Amino acid sequence: MNQTPNSPMSTQTKRLWLFGLFLLLILGLFLLNLALGSVSIPLKDIWGSLIGREGVKESWVYIVQNSRLPRVLTAALAGIALSASGLQMQTMFRNPLADPFILGINSGASLGVAIAILGSGFVGGLFLPALTLRGEFSLVLAASVGAGLVLALILLVGRWVQNPTTLLILGLMFGHATGAIVSILVYFSAPERIQAYSIWSFGSFSGVNWTQLNVMAIVVLVGVGLMALLPKGLNALLLGEDYARTMGLNVGLLRFVVLLSASVLSGAVTAFCGPIGFIGVAVPHIARNLFKTSNHKILIPAIILIGAAVSMAASLIAQLPGSQLVLPINVVTSLFGAPFVVWVVLKRKRGATSFSV
Amino acid sequence: MIADQLNLQLNPGEFVCLVGPNGVGKSTLLRTLTGLQPKLAGEIQLSGRKLESYRPRDLANQVSVVLTSPISVGAMRVDELAAMGRFPFTGLFDRMTEHDWEVVHETLRVVGVDKLSHRYVHTLSDGERQKVMIARALAQEPRLLVLDEPTAYLDLPGRVVVMNLLHNLAHGHDKAVLTSTHDLELALRHADRIWLMDDEGRISQGAPEDLVLNGSFAQAFNRAGVLFDPLSGTFDTQNSGSKSVFLEGQGSELVWTQRALHRAGFTVDEEWIPGSPRVCVRPQEGATTWQLEYAGQTSAFASIYDLLQSL
Fold first, then answer.
1. Which residues pair with B266 in a beta bridge?
2. Element (H, E) at B45
3. Is residue B85 part of a domain?
4. What's the domain count of chain B?
5. For residue A341, with 0-12 CB atoms within 10 Å meaning exposed, 13-18 middle and 19 or more buried, which class applies?
6. Do B94 and A356 touch (CB under 8 A)?
7. Domain boundary residue, one of B179, B198, B225
8. CA distance B142 to chain A (A)
């Protein structure tokens, strides 16, 4: 960590405690996610179910191995990816409201999925199987293609746009344009197709199978790995691109890697889980407030832990343990997350200043 | 570039102020000199090498900057911010050595903000924050320090402190310091050399006193109604009064009464013209009185304000 030789130990110690606390929290949430759901599995049998030990109910083994374990891992990966992407966007644009989707990655993915689900009515059922099963590969494919195209566009435009704010406005306009196309598709579509599209847009950690999870894990690892190279560059960007340049950094390359990492991360999540809001914008703020720093050497590990924990908590709540109902992830993140962030903001006396990026 | 025919030189141990009216291209010149934007023509040499032949990192070892826009870094401590100045020396992961921290703490001490090193930047005053930004620039251990209007957001004492600091950095630490500023009077007092940029993009350079005496200053800033006074080195509005007044007295009371009369539109005469008002400043223990003789009447006032009211 960025520790001065004579800085007060308490800050450092407090941060270590926080890291430990979140590790414990993640472990606890992991176990609860495996144990709770429509069927409760006793905590003592979780391990048995995980490794498929003799004598543990076969249905439990099946539920844990094929439903709950992939789901909780998906949740953790998505939480990490969204938080990492959101942090980079907030720093690069020096805008506390920036989120992983600010450049229109989710718009591209949404358009892809909308064309796959809704447009299939017009083009003779090209993607018809997509209607029957959520998490079907064609949806992932459609979302990936959409996100990928936007990503390519961003990287291309990012090379010759001088001012990052221009990029921001372009992303915003792109989102509006794709939103309009999606609206047209919705307007002319049959109700059941519209419902299928809405369900996708609510987001879900379920229905990601092991193969897809592997792909997602690799993509997230690459994205987070890229970000892990950038604490110095991101810190420099806090002062603005001009300062970064005069400190000897290659700002063009830095911007390219940030855009690449952030877009790949948010694209992966949108492709596999749908457009999941809130986590990406909230987790960096939670990290800055808890760890009382904007230093990315501390923020990067912090948002990885907090992102995973928040996302796993959302996944747990969405299952409504003990009931047969499942809530959409977006409902949970926003309904439970927004009041939490309001509380975090208001309980700090100097909230306004320390909450800036 | 906006300016043409520039042939300028900067030496170590020299504090140079770039002054000129708004919009003549001071910032553009500074950005070009620091490599932040490409030059349009001409040649810039740094330590005998062409500026564009430097790689960014090498340039960062030679030149560091303090830009005019206020920064907002969120929750960052003063020492962390100053430590960013070590970026050109640290590796990809910014691992700071003992030596790096020594340099950072030394620069914080030189700039006079070592007591603040564990404060958060957003809790500092504008003046303190500007000093921290100067410390960050110094931690880069540059040969040339370039500042774009570092005093813009500061109160008057703060400006004096910063200008004095820059002067000391040039002289005590053998840096070349170049700053643009709108504080002409401070520039005249502190700068070793002035680069004076005028509307037509010409730059005249020289010791501040030379530029005052040869009239360059007055010429560059001449506007309708504003006059540069070579005697005081200050700018005055040109409400040369039609009414004249004779003033006698001494010390600071005399000076400030004179200023007040100027503002009120009076010309202060060298000797008394019969028929015009005559003001006499009488400093006394505890309370100064201003005595006014006019049209055969004599009245006394307890303040300049009261005096002006009756004139």
1. B243
2. strand B45-46
3. yes
4. 2
5. middle
6. no
7. B225
8. 11
Structure tokens at A69: 């374990």
Contact B84, A247 (CB under 8 A): yes
- For chain B, strand residue ranges (E) read 15-19, 45-46, 49-50, 63-66, 144-148, 176-180, 193-197, 203-206, 226-229, 234-237, 243-248, 266-269, 278-282, 289-294, 297-301
CB contact under 8 A, A248 and B69: no
Q: What is the pLDDT of residue A356?
A: 60
Residue B258 lies in domain? 243-310
| A69-354, CATH topology level | ABC transporter involved in vitamin B12 uptake, BtuC (1.10.3470)
Token pair of A131 as six digits: 């209607």
Q: Are residues B58 and B106 in the same domain?
A: yes
* Cβ of residue B242 closer than 8 Å to a chain A Cβ: no
How many Å apart are CA B14 and CA B193, to the nearest integer?
8
| Maximum separation of any 2 CA atoms in chain B, in Å | 84
pLDDT at A4: 47
Give the angle subtended at the CA of B216 by the CAs of B210 and B219, to the nearest 5°: 155
The answer to whether residues B219 and B301 belong to one domain is: no
**A274/A139 Cα distance (integer angstroms):** 10
Interface test with B, best of A162, A288, A294, A303 (most B CBs within 10 A): A294
Quick check: B107 contacting A, CB < 8 Å?
no
Mark A241-272 as b/e (b = at least 16 C-beta within 10 Å): bbbbbbbbbebeebbebbbbbbbbbbbbbbbb
Task: Count CB atoms within 10 A of the CB of residue A356.
Answer: 18
Return the H-helix or E-strand segment holding B67.
none
Chain B residues whose CB is inside 8 A of the A292 CB are: 75
**Closest listed residue to residue B245, CA positions, set B178, B291, B283, B305:** B291
Instruction: Give yes or no: residues B213 and B254 share one domain.
Output: no
Q: State whether B75 and B181 are in the same domain.
A: yes
Strand partners, B229: B234
Selection from B180, B136, B59, B60 nearest residue A238 by Cα: B136
Structure tokens at A326: 């499942």
Q: What is the pLDDT of residue B102?
A: 93
Which residue from A240, A248, A294 is facing B76, i.e. has the nearest CB?
A: A294
Strands B289-294, B297-301: pairing is antiparallel
CA atoms within 13 A on the CB side of A89: 30
Per-residue model confidence as pLDDT tens digits over A299-353: 999 999 999 999 999 999 998 887 888 888 998 988 887 887 777 667 665 544 4
For residues B70 and B198, state if they share a domain: yes
Is there a single domain that holds both residue B251 and residue B133?
no
Contacts of B58 in chain A (CB under 8 A): 248
pLDDT digits (tens, 9 = 90+) for B181-230: 988 888 988 999 999 888 777 888 889 888 888 888 888 777 666 777 77
Q: What is d(CA B118, CA A350) in angstroms, rounded to the nearest whole number?
A: 17
Average pLDDT for chain B? 84
AA identity, residue B153: Y
Mark whether B117 and B249 lie in a shared domain. Answer: no
The answer to whether the Cβ–Cβ distance between B94 and A2 falls below 8 Å is yes
Structure tokens at B90: 């640290």
Domains of chain A by residue range: 69-354
Task: State the pTM of this model.
Answer: 0.83
DSSP, res B46: E
Contact at CB, B75 and A239, closer than 8 angstroms: no
